[in-house]
Write a structure and sequence with these properties.
Strand content: 5-15%
Strand order of the largest sheet: 1-2
Oligomer: single chain
Structural class: mainly alpha
Radius of gyration: 22 Å
Helix content: 25-40%
Number of helices: 4
Number of strands: 2
Length: about 130
């Protein structure tokens, strides 16, 4: 989405990422001071590698299209002590039609977090005392 929005605005997607990148000394929305961060350096290295000839050649009328992507994310490390909890919560709701819906505030980046959370919630629910 960043690439699409940047291109529509006439901007370089890499420059948009660099302009908005977290840097050492920044303060997060949770109020944490970023003491170390190499995101801008990583973006610059990726740009250099892409420009150096890693751009794939398009085949005319080919069925397979190739491209190069760049994405950025954040991972907090070592900040789960005391009052600095940076986690989230989850909730399981039984719908009127009998379906079970899991709401959670964590990101699933392809690791199967949704099913994992649902299994853990169901296991907890199954072991909880039942009200009669």
């Amino acid at each position: 989405m960043i690439d699409v929005a940047a291109r529509r605005a006439g901007l370089d997607p890499v420059e948009v990422r660099l302009k908005n990148a977290v840097r050492q000394g920044d303060v997060t929305l949770h109020g944490w001071n970023v003491r170390s961060c190499g995101l801008t350096e990583c973006i610059e290295k990726a740009r250099t590698a892409i420009v150096r000839g890693r751009k794939p050649k398009e085949e005319k009328n080919g069925k397979i299209k190739r491209g190069v992507g760049l994405a950025c994310m954040n991972h907090v490390s070592g900040n789960r002590t005391g009052n600095n909890f940076d986690g989230s919560s989850s909730m399981v709701r039984f719908q009127e039609d009998g379906k079970l819906v899991l709401y959670h505030g964590e990101s699933d980046m392809g690791q199967g977090l949704g099913p994992c959370l649902l299994r853990s919630q169901l296991k907890l629910w199954a072991s909880s005392p039942r009200m009669s």
